[in-house]
Amino acid sequence: MLRTRSGPLVLDRVALVGILNATPDSFSDGGRHLDPGRAAAAAAEMVAEGAAMLDVGAESTRPGAPPVPADEERRRLLPVLRAVRAAVRVPISVDTSKATIVRLALEEGADVVNDVSAGRFDPALLPLCAEQGVPVVLMHMQGTPVTMQLDPRYADVVAEVAAFLAERAGAARAAGVAADAIVVDPGIGFGKTVAHNCALLARLDLVASLGYPVLVGVSRKGFIGQLLGERPTSERLLGTAAAVALAVAKGARLVRVHEVGAMRDVARVAEAVVGA
Ligand code: HH2
């Protein structure tokens, strides 16, 4: 269970985390939720479909994406966050690597911090999470979004990602974050080839063995398109379903997805089989 300001996020069952990108350029839903009214409507729909948490972000981290200045990130994020907060009661995570944005987002009612840099890009982020007593998602990435897909290399991707997450969880705890407020994420697609992503899903149990809940984000990602012969993002639903089911089978407790209703069915069946 994750304790949040909007109540507990129970992880006895797999939690569906709905994606809301307040960006003009996200790889699959760019531009759709920049408008606060539309974002709020999408948020309410995702909760009705079974989302246990919503992840709101204003900086695309797709391969090659340039960093967004804090002013711009704030300008996009806060109106959307305010509208989403007014529309739903489930916990909201804010997808950012900047402590200044975290502080503002928490004031607008965000509950959880989702940092794709695991506290490496802004040294003030983990101490702020500790001070505010909010859970944090620590994600693995090799390089930065600009460089990460140029030539990702590992001797043993699963062992290296697990070691990295153990080290970052240690850093979070050293900064004062409670052990039960940490979630880890292998960072599917962040500095990884198709083979790296598949290996991480196949051996996700090693990441789960760190003892923290595992979040996995596979939804519509590039490796699914590549495995299916350059399939566009709009046609990756069933590929996403396969990856979600296998992630759940190997211990994922939170899955970050665009199609909440469809992936709720996938997660429910997968976890029933796992629990049999
Ligand atoms: N993936 C994306 C963004 N944030 N956060 C976590 N914890 N795990 C992920 O796998 C993850 C993430 C990328 O996907 P998306 O938000 O759909 O696109 P974009 O980065 O282009 O906004």
Explain what you see.
By secondary structure, this protein is an alpha/beta fold. The mean pLDDT is 97. It is 41% helix and 15% strand. An 8-stranded parallel sheet has the order 8-7-6-5-4-3-10-9. Strands 1-2 form a two-stranded antiparallel sheet. α2 (70-87) runs parallel beside α3 (99-107). Bound molecules: 6-hydroxymethylpterin-diphosphate. 6-hydroxymethylpterin-diphosphate is lined by residues 19, 21, 23, 26-28, 57, 60-62, 95, 114, 116, 137, 139, 185, 187-188, 215, 217, 256.
Write the layout of secondary structure elements.
Elements: E1 2-4, E2 7-9, E3 15-21, H1 36-48, E4 51-57, H2 70-87, E5 92-95, H3 99-107, E6 112-115, H4 125-132, E7 136-139, H5 157-174, E8 182-185, H6 194-202, H7 204-208, E9 215-216, H8 222-227, H9 237-249, E10 254-257, H10 260-274
Parallel strand pairs: 3-4, 3-10, 4-5, 5-6, 6-7, 7-8, 9-10
Antiparallel strand pairs: 1-2
Helix pairs in contact: 1-2, 2-3, 3-4, 9-10
The structure holds 6-hydroxymethylpterin-diphosphate.
The site of 6-hydroxymethylpterin-diphosphate has 21 residues, from strand 3 and strand 7.
